[in-house]
């Protein structure tokens, strides 16, 4: 599995506090699996300094049928994609 580390802001929509879709890098992504909540232990050292840090891991599929796995975290200024996996 190839991993790409990024730190890009994203817009995330939730239903009942569970991610359902997002806009990332100018593309729309639908959540196409069951999202997993991420806690402090999965983040790199640079992110662990944030108190209350949490995020989500889920598979997203765009309009072209391309699917990636995304790790998102909630920062002070909103949601960010930390990594995506092909």
UniProtKB/TrEMBL annotation:
It comes from the Bacteria. This is Uncharacterized protein. It comes from Microbacterium phyllosphaerae.
């Amino acid at each position: 599995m190839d991993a790409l580390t990024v730190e890009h802001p994203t817009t995330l929509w939730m239903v009942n506090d569970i991610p359902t879709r997002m806009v990332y890098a100018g593309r729309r992504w639908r959540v196409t699996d069951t999202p997993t909540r991420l806690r402090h232990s999965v983040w790199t050292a640079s992110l662990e300094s944030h108190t209350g840090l949490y995020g989500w891991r889920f598979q997203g599929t765009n309009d072209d049928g391309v699917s990636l796995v995304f790790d998102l975290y909630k920062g002070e200024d909103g949601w960010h994609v930390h990594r995506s996996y092909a």
